[in-house]
Design goal:
With 151 residues, the chain is mostly helical. Among the domains are: 68 residues, Cytochrome C biogenesis protein (Helicase, Ruva Protein, domain 3), CATH 1.10.8.640; 30 residues. It is built from five helices and no strands. Helix 2 packs across helix 3. The protein is elongated, with a radius of gyration of 28 Å. The two termini are 43 Å apart.
Length: 151
């Protein structure tokens, strides 16, 4: 059983290493999006501050159209996605982000489901291991008379 657990751990470590490497390579790719696509992506990631729970890109209000124009203007000036998003966060707070940031309470929101899955997997593995190691010595033998007499 221990060798099987060891091989599972080795596979898990190998898969996590591959995921980290692939994730790192994905972030190193140059941005090939057009200015219009970048502006749309930024507008889709920001909540309209004056609308009811929709992104700037989804809203049809005049305020949202004005904010889209500001985003396009900043993209045309050469500002990066993070800089533009940062300006909106500075003005309206982190609430304006449709996805919680991966820091502080936002990190907890991202990590909680993963931690739950890991805890569940560990619990299942522990229960399986305990049931696999049940000793026959703990069970009553046929040669030992039962304390309960049949009537």
């Amino acid at each position: 059983m221990r060798s099987r657990l060891g091989s599972v751990v080795r596979w898990a470590v190998a898969l996590m290493a591959i995921a980290i490497i692939v994730g790192g390579l994905a972030f190193d790719q140059p941005d090939t999006r057009s200015a219009e696509q970048r502006a749309d992506d930024i507008a889709s990631s920001l909540r309209c501050p004056f609308c009811e729970g929709v992104s700037i890109a989804e809203s049809t209000s005049q305020v949202a159209r004005d904010l889209q124009a500001i985003i396009r203007e900043r993209v045309d000036e050469g500002a990066g996605d993070e800089a533009i998003t940062g300006e909106f966060v500075a003005r309206y707070g982190e609430w304006v982000l449709l996805s919680p940031p991966a820091s502080g309470i936002g990190l907890a929101l991202w990590a909680l489901p993963i931690a739950g899955l890991v805890a569940g997997a560990v619990a299942v593995a522990g229960l399986r291991r305990r049931s696999d190691t049940t000793d026959d010595r703990d069970l009553p033998s046929a040669s030992v008379p039962s304390r309960v007499e049949s009537t």
